[in-house]
């Protein structure tokens, strides 16, 4: 019963449509990156959030590796990304908080264009934060990610990162 009292579900949906009066190939329906469903609950002092986030890309505007120096209007780039995961937040003291995350992401094309980019990734991250004032927090965070491509055309990779945050 205490679990249900502290639980919350949030659904955010971001939808957009872009159109051009002069070029039909610029028309696109998009799901914005904030489209998600989250389920949060507490166990003791630890807040758990299960999430699923969906986004789409209908052009190559933000992918210089695809677009190069060309015009995005001539590039057909229909992709969808789904990320599912769990985040945990624990604040053992008033000004100290600890966060941990796991995310599994799938990226797929909606047609055969750029199928070499189809793949999945798994990311684990952790951070410790100290609140110095209501508007300023410092800390350290680290992450590790495994990236695998579906058809082996691209090189899979493992990456690590650690550093200060403010």
Give a quick precis of the structure.
This protein is mainly beta and 166 residues long.
Helix percent band: under 10%
Shape: globular
Unreliable residue runs? none
Number of helices: 2
**SS elements, strand count:** 10
Q: How much of the polypeptide forms β-strand, as a percent range? A: over 45%
* Arithmetic mean of pLDDT: 81
Give the strand order, joined by hyphens, for the main sheet.
Answer: 1-4-5-6-7-8-9-10
What is the makeup of the main sheet? Answer: 8 strands, antiparallel
* Structural class assignment: mainly beta
Radius of gyration: 20 Å
Structural features:
single chain; mainly beta; two-stranded antiparallel ribbon; 8-stranded antiparallel β-sheet
Could you explain the architecture of this structure?
The protein has 166 residues and is mostly beta strands. It is 5% helix and 61% strand. The protein contains two helices and ten strands, in the order αβββββαβββββ. It has an eight-stranded antiparallel beta sheet with strand order 1-4-5-6-7-8-9-10. A two-stranded antiparallel ribbon has the order 2-3. Strand 8 (119-133) and strand 9 form a beta hairpin.
Layout of helices and strands:
Blueprint: H1 2-6, E1 8-12, E2 15-18, E3 28-31, E4 35-43, E5 46-57, H2 64-67, E6 79-93, E7 96-109, E8 119-133, E9 136-149, E10 157-165
Antiparallel strand pairs: 1-4, 2-3, 4-5, 5-6, 6-7, 7-8, 8-9, 9-10
């Amino acid at each position: 019963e205490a679990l249900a009292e502290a639980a919350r579900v949030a659904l955010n949906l971001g939808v957009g449509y872009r159109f051009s009066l002069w070029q039909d190939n610029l028309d696109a329906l998009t799901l914005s990156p904030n489209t998600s469903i989250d389920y949060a609950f507490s166990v003791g002092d630890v807040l758990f959030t299960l999430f699923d986030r969906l986004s789409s890309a209908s052009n190559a505007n933000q992918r210089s590796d695809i677009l190069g120096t060309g015009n995005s209007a001539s590039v057909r780039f229909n992709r969808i990304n789904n990320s599912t995961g769990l985040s945990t937040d624990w604040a053992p003291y008033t000004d100290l908080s600890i966060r941990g995350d796991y995310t599994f992401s799938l990226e797929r094309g909606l047609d055969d264009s750029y199928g070499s980019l189809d793949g999945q990734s798994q990311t684990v991250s952790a951070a410790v934060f100290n609140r110095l004032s209501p508007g300023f927090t410092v800390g350290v965070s680290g992450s590790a990610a495994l990236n695998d491509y579906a058809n082996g055309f691209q090189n899979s990779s493992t990456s690590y990162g650690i550093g200060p945050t403010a």
